[in-house]
Amino acid sequence: MTEERTEVKPYNNQESSKKQEVAEMFDNISKKYDFLNHFLSLGIDKIWRRKAVRQLRELQPKKILDIATGTGDFAVALMKLKPAQVIGVDISQGMLDVGKEKMKRKGLDDVISMKLGDSENLPFETGSFDALTVAFGVRNYENLEKGLSEMLRILRPGGKAVILEFSKPRTFPMKQLFGFYSKRIIPFFGKRISKDKRAYDYLPESVAAFPEGQDFLDILSEIGYTRVNQRRVSGGIATIYSGTKQ
Fold first, then answer.
1. How many C-beta neighbours within 10 Å does residue 97 have?
2. Sheet (strand 85-90) strand order
3. CA quadruple 120, 17, 178, 215: dihedral sign
4. CA 55, CA 189: separation in Å to the nearest integer?
5. Predicted confidence band of residue 3 (pLDDT cuts 50, 70, 90)
6. What are φ and ψ of residue 44, in 5° steps?
């Protein structure tokens, strides 16, 4: 049964949907996103992505979909698996424009393509991907269950989803340090560098509202994913979730 959850939106405009506001927010910060992402995470996000990619190593996927791809950092990390094709999908054209230039610079645009698309209505045939990834994107879904169901639909039988998402540390001192860092340091620098006053307040708010840990695994199981699993990293600042299509 779907649990009632508080909706958190970037700008809290009653006349716009969460989906519209998330797209607007990422369009607004797209030019500064890569710098802020690595600066505010102290570069640890790169380590998390590498660990998430290893979850797919045994599967050896050839066709991978990276949802909420942003500027394509996870798509680039997936090249370690030597895939034949990676498609990155995002609802922010601004982020995709930055990502397309990145792929050209890296000489990866022959393998990695970037497409405008909605996680809740993916423009792909059922069972068309060996694997899919999402990094820091599922908490931005307007309808979490619908987005996760669409992800399951486009996986082939035996295909695997790997989801990297922020979580809340539970033990001292990481809990206190992360609380201070996410509520004070991230918004302080985020606002000044990105020039978007709300984007980096939304980050800790959306993390707090997200059904993490066992709650999220239960949602995956209810939707139909099998062999669901989680691995907390860096003291619980982030969690790598995985699930397979039967």
1. 15
2. 112-116, 85-90, 63-67, 129-135, 155-166, 238-244, 226-233
3. negative
4. 33
5. low
6. -70, -25
- What pLDDT does residue 4 have? 63
Q: CB–CB of 133/49 below 8 Å?
A: no
Give me the half-sphere count of Cα atoms (radius 13 Å) on the Cβ side of residue 99: 27
Q: Which residues pair with 240 in a beta bridge?
A: 164, 231
- Please name the helix (run of DSSP H) or strand (run of DSSP E) that holds residue 106, with its range, or none: helix 93-106
Q: How far apart are CA 32 and CA 28, in angstroms?
A: 9
Amino acid of residue 218: D
User: Integer distance in angstroms from the first to the last C-alpha of the chain?
Assistant: 21
Q: How far is C-alpha 215 from the geometric centre of its chain's CA atoms?
A: 18
This prediction's pTM: 0.94
Q: Which residues have a Cβ under 8 Å from the Cβ of 101 and sit 6 or more positions away?
A: none
1 has pLDDT over 80: no
Long-range pairs of 40-45 with CB within 8 A, sequence gap ≥ 24: 40/185, 40/186, 40/189, 40/190, 44/234, 44/237, 45/73
